[in-house]
Fold each of these.
Amino acid sequence: MEPNNNNQIPLLISLFSLIFFNYAQAVCVPRNSSTHLLQRSPPPNSPPKPSPSPDSAPTLSMDPSIKKICETTDYPDLCVSSIAPFLSGKTDPISVLEMAINAATQHAKNAMAMASKLSAVPKATTDSANAPLFKDCKEMYSDALDNLQSAMDAIPSRDIGTINSMLSAALTDFVTCEDGFSGGTSPLSPYDDKGTKMASNCLAIASLIK
C-alpha cells in the first residue's frame, strides 16, 4: 500500500514551524543581557579631565563695609581694586587705611622700577633726552616710599597730623614727577596719575579716623 502523502503534509508543516520558532528565538534574545548595560567608553587617546584646582575657587566679594569706606573717596573704584590684594579680614577705617597705604607703597615701588629702567636707556635712543627727568622721578618715588612708610608708622599712635602730612607729601611726589615733563606725557604719566589718586584716597580714608 502506498503511503498517504496528505497525512504527512501537516506533520511537515508543524516540524518546520517548530524549527523556525526556535531559530527566531535564538536570534532575537541576546546571549548576554548585560551588554545592554554597557556604557560608551571614551576614545583611548582622549586626555583625562583635570581635577578642579583649589586656586580656581571663586574669589570672595568685597566686604560692604570696605566698599562704604571707599565710597567716601574721590576714586572709589580705584580704592576697591587697589586694596583687594591686601585684604586682612578687618573692615574698620584704620585697617582699610593700612591696606590703602600698602597698595600705594607697592605702586610706588613699581613706578620706581620703571623710572630706573627708563633712566638707563642708551644715549642713542629717542628717550635719552628725558633720562635726567626719569632719574628725578626715581628720586621722587623714593621719597614717596619714605613718606608712605612714615604715615604707616604714625597709625598706631593715631597721630593724624603726621599721617595727613606724610600722605600729602607722597601725593606731591607723584605730581612733581609729572610736572617735570612740562605738561607733556611720558611713559611715567600713568604711574603718576594713579599714584596721585591713590594718595588722595589714602587722605580721604584717614579723615574717617577719630
Amino acid sequence: MGFMTRAFILIAMVACLTSVAHAIAGQATFYTPPYVPSSCYGYENRGVMILAANRGLFNNRAACGTRYRVRCTSGTNLGVPQPCTGRSVDVTVVDLCPGCNPNQIDLSREAFQVIANPDAGRINVEYTRI
C-alpha cells in the first residue's frame, strides 16, 4: 500500500472519529394523549414514540421529523430515587413544548415509560440525534 493511500485511510479514520455525536444532557417530562394535533404534522398521527421539543431544539419547526435516542441517567426527586429502566428509546420530534426549559424535552407517556418509571414525573436524560 502506497504512502498516499495510507495517508488517505488515516485521514478518513480520524474524520470518522471526530464526527461522533455527543449526547445533550437535560431533563425529560412526559405528556399524555391526545397527541394530535401537533405543531409539525397537524392531525396526522405519527405514532406514540414521539417528543415535544424545547424552543431552541424545535427551532421554528426545523426539528420536525428529527429522531433522537433518549436515555435516562438518574432521577430528579426523592419520591422515585432510581426511576431508570436501563433502556433507551428512539423518538421523533412532532411538537413544540412551549413550557420546557432549555435542554428539557417532553416525551409521550409511552416513550417515557420505556426509559423510566412514570411516577418519577421528571428525570435526568441524555439525548442524541440519530
Amino acid sequence: MSNLVFLSVLFLLLQRPLSSLSANSEGNALHALRSRLSDPNNVLQSWDPTLVNSCTWFHVTCDSNNHVIRLDLGNSNLSGTLGPELAQLPHLQYLELYRNNISGKIPKELGNLKNLISMDLYDNQLEGKIPKSFGKLKSLKYLRLNNNKLTGSIPRELTHLKNLKIFDVSNNDLCGTIPVDGNFESFPMESFENNKFSGPELKGLVPYDFGC
C-alpha cells in the first residue's frame, strides 16, 4: 500500500507544470536579491519567500506563464549590492534599479539575460568595469549606466548590439577611447561626457583602451 502511495505522489510531482518550477526558481532569485539590499522604506515588504508565486509581489511583473519579465525598483532608497542570482531570471526584459544607493560591481552574469530590453542602473554607486558579457544581450535597446563610479574602458563587445538605441555612461570614471563602430556612431557625445576618455577611437593608430 505504501508503495502505491509513493507512486501516486511521484506521479503528481511529475505532473507539476515546468512554469511552476521555474517560478519557484525565480522567486528564490528575487529573495536572494532582497537579502543583499537594505530597504529602509520597506519597498520590498511584500517579497515573502513563503509565497510560491512571486508574481504577487509588488514591483514585480510577470507574463501569462508566471515568468518574471520586469523589476521596477527605481528611486526606492535601496542600498547594498547586486549578485549573480539575477541571472536566474531568464525571461527578464526590464531591469529598473535606477536612483538608489546600490554599490559594488555589476555582476557579469547579467550578460546571460538574453531577453533583456532595458537595463537602467543609473544614479547609483556602482564601481568596477562594464562587463564584457553585456555583448551577449542581443535584445538590449536601452543601457543607462550614467552617474556611477565605473572605471576601465567601454567593452568593444557592445558595438555588436544592433538593437541598442540608447547608451549613456556619462558621469563615471571611464577611460580609453569612445567606440565608433556599430550603433555607437549615432550616440550623442553627451552620453560619454564627464569621464576620462581621450576621444573617439582612432583605429589602427592607438589601442582602444589608450589612456587607461
Amino acid sequence: MMASSFRDCKAWSAECLPLSTSSNEACKLYDAILTQYVKWRNDETVGGFEGCISAIQTADPNFVMGHVISTGLELMSTGTSARMNERLAGDVRRTVELANSQVLSPRERLHVEAMEQYSHGCFRKACVVWEDILVDHPTDMLALKFAQDSYFYMGAQVQLRDSVARVLPYWKPHMPFYSYLNGMYSFGLLETRLYDQALKVAMEGLALTPDDAWSVHSVAHVYEMTGEVDKGLKFMESREKDWQGADVLASHNYWHWALYLIEKGQYEAALQIYDTQVFRRCKATGSMLDTVDASSMLCRLEMEGVCVEEDRWRELFQVTQPHTDDHATMFNDVHFLMASLGAKESGTSQRLLEGLQELAKEPGDNQQHQLARAIGVSICQAMMEYNQGNYTRSMELLYPLRYRVVEMGGSDAQRDVFNQLLIHAAMKSENKHHQKLGRCLLVERDATKPNSPLTDRLMQRALALHN
C-alpha cells in the first residue's frame, strides 16, 4: 500500500481535481509519480518512477489519468517518439480509446487530448490545451509541468514565465508542491532576463524547501548568465548535499558547476566533473538531459582548445548513436551530431542530417520537423562544415539564424554553445568581413556578460589571429 501522505480519491476530489477511478491505491500512485516528477527524483521508498508506473497499471488498468501521466512522462523524456516507437504509439492509442469508452471529467478529457497532440509533435497545440485546463484548474500540477516542459522544448521563454505567473495567486501554502512553484517561476524569469527577480524568487523557494533542486538550478543559471562565477561555485558547493539526491537533475546541476570552471579556464577540474558525474550518470541513465549536457560540455572544451581525447567522444557516441533516427526534438539532434562529429563517425553524422532533410520535406503538423526545415538542417550543415574546417561556409549558414536558435529550445545557458561556435567560425573564417563580425560579436558578448574570462580569452585569440 502507498504511504498515507499521498492523496486518495477523496483528497483529490477535495482539491477540485477529481480522478475517475474508485481505487485509492491508483490515486495515491498517481500522486507518487507526480511528486517524483515535481521533485526531479526517483523515490526508491515507493519504487521509483518505474515501480509506481508499473503498480498504477495493476491497481486500476482502466485508470485514464494513470495512462496519461505514465505515457506523457515517456513522451516528455524525448528519449523516443511515437513516430519511431510502435509500442509507445500503441500506448497513446490505448489511452485515447480508453477515454472514449468512459465517463470522464472535461479536465481529464483535455489531458488526453493534449497528450495525443504532443505525441504527434504538435507541441504548441498541446500547450494550448494544457493552458485551457489551467484556466479552470490552476492547481493542476500535471498540466502546469507538461506545459512547462513543452515551452522549454520550444524555446518559448515568455510563455514559460507567464504560464506560472497566471496560476501563482491560486496556490496556497498548505497545498502540496506549493514551494516548488518558486523554482518554476524563477526559471521563467531568468529566461526572460529578469535576473534579480529570478534570484529572489528562487531563494524564497529554497528557504521553504532547501532540497528543491530546480530552485538551486535557477540560482545556478542566474550566476552563469550574470558572470558571477565565484558566487556560483560557492553556492553549488555549499548546497551540493541538498541537490545531489535529486537524481533526475543532479547531472545537469553538476554540468552548471562545470560551466563555471570552464569559464575560469580550469579545464582539468571541469573534465573531472565530466568523468565522475556528468558522463557517469549519462551512461547509467541514458537520460536525454544528461546526454545533451555531456555532448555540449565536450564541444565547449574543444572550442577552448582542450584535448578531450577521442575515447571520451567514442564512449559518448555509444549513448547517442541509437537515437540517430529518433528526431524527437531538434535540440537533441544537434547534440547527437556533436557526439558523432567528435567521435569522427561521419556516416552517422550524414545519416542524421539526411534523416532530418527527409522529414523537413513534408513536416506536416509536427512542430519539430517544421523547425528542421526552417533552421535545423542549416544548423546541422553549419556544424558539419565547421568540423571539416570550412569556417567561411559555416559562418554563412549559421550567422543568419543566430536569433532563431532559441526556437530549438533549451535555456540561454545551453544555447550559448552555438554563440561560441558562431564566434569561433567568424574568427577562423578567411573572409575579412566575417573576422570583423567576430570581433563585433565579442563586443556584444562583453556588454551583456561583463567580466567574463572566457570572453577575454576569445578577444585575445581574435587579436592574435588577425594582427
